[in-house]
Amino acid sequence: MVIILQDGSDVPVFKQIRNQIVVGISEGKLLPGEKLPTVRALAEEIGINSMTVNKAYQLLKQEGYIITDKRNGVRVREKFASIPELSPEAKEQLHQMVSEARIRGITRDEFVALVDEYYASSMPDGYLQGEYTPLLE
Amino acid sequence: MVIILQDGSDVPVFKQIRNQIVVGISEGKLLPGEKLPTVRALAEEIGINSMTVNKAYQLLKQEGYIITDKRNGVRVREKFASIPELSPEAKEQLHQMVSEARIRGITRDEFVALVDEYYASSMPDGYLQGEYTPLLE
DNA sequence: TCCTTTGTATTACCCATAATAATACAAACA
DNA sequence: TGTTTGTATTATTATGGGTAATACAAAGGA
């Protein structure tokens, strides 16, 4: 998968990397169990320091998206825990987003249409919870 | 309207103030044309520096939510421009949010239910675009 | 007219975080 | 025995958030 950095962004580089990998997993561009580039390889590829890549991997590891194994490198989790609730932070973020949309005059249906668009890009129900068992390599 | 600061938050204080005021406008807790506290009054009320409040007001002003008038203080905009599109940043944020929800196993319907909940808290269609003309003072 | 209140501008300082840089090390595989 | 892996360490730089202490022009009230 290709990581593309937005240079003028206020989002830190390590978080941009983390975000793009999470979207990649959700949309099947990164398969369960797939090997990610080494910290040094990815750092050189996108022209940044390897410790910044490591910081992104540390975050992904802590959040349960990937598994790091010394010598074996970094791999995408095989299965993900089903947690049928958004985090309080995410809920507040969504609340905020709806409020701003509402002031701009964006209707509920317009907002939901956008949500549907993004859900259509992601993998089908249960794909990452283990009901599908994709063959790898 | 009461501003409540989350002390352990990673969200900067000036942005917490800005966010709560935006939500307040969307949900009718702040009426169009309503006067906001002075920078010094709000600063003392929540125990922070007045320049931090000013920073929040500057942002709200630049985003078109409020109007500052020397000597007259700060007031909520009367009418808001109808812009039937989320900003690219907001879209990307929503995309990110859907991706993370998807990995957690949260379905489209569960996500939309949350959106509906927040839309139910906000004012009806067109309220802030001037079709309603609320009486003030 | 004089005083007060308003948002605003300025300057300085402290602190946390992001990012780079240069290494170093234990583990594990070929 | 290399070499590659993630990881830890230390130092340095830059940016942004927040506080602090003022200062000022504008505008309203007394």
Summarize the structure in words:
- Two copies of one chain form a homodimer.
- Chain A has 137 residues and is mainly alpha-helical.
- In chain A, 48% of the residues lie in helices and 7% in strands.
- Chain A is built from five helices and three strands.
- The first copy, chain A, has helices at residues 13-26, 39-46, 50-62, 88-104, 108-121, and strands at 35-36, 66-69, 73-76.
- Chain A has a three-stranded antiparallel β-sheet with strand order 1-3-2.
- In chain A, helix 1 crosses helix 3 and helix 2 (39-46) packs across helix 3 (50-62).
- At the A-B interface, helix 1, helix 4 and helix 5 of A face helix 1, helix 4 and helix 5 of B.
- The first copy, chain A, binds a DNA duplex (30 and 30 nucleotides) through helix 3.
Low-confidence stretches of chain A: none
> Biggest sheet of chain A, open or closed, and with what strands and sense?
3 strands, antiparallel
Sheet-strand content of chain A, in percent, reads 5-15%
Q: Return the structural class of chain A.
A: mainly alpha
- How many structural domains are formed by the residues of chain A? 2
| CATH structural class of the largest domain in chain A | Mainly Alpha
Rounded to an integer in angstroms, the radius of gyration calculated over CA atoms of chain A is 17 Å
Shape of chain A: globular
What's the overall average pLDDT of chain A, rounded? 92
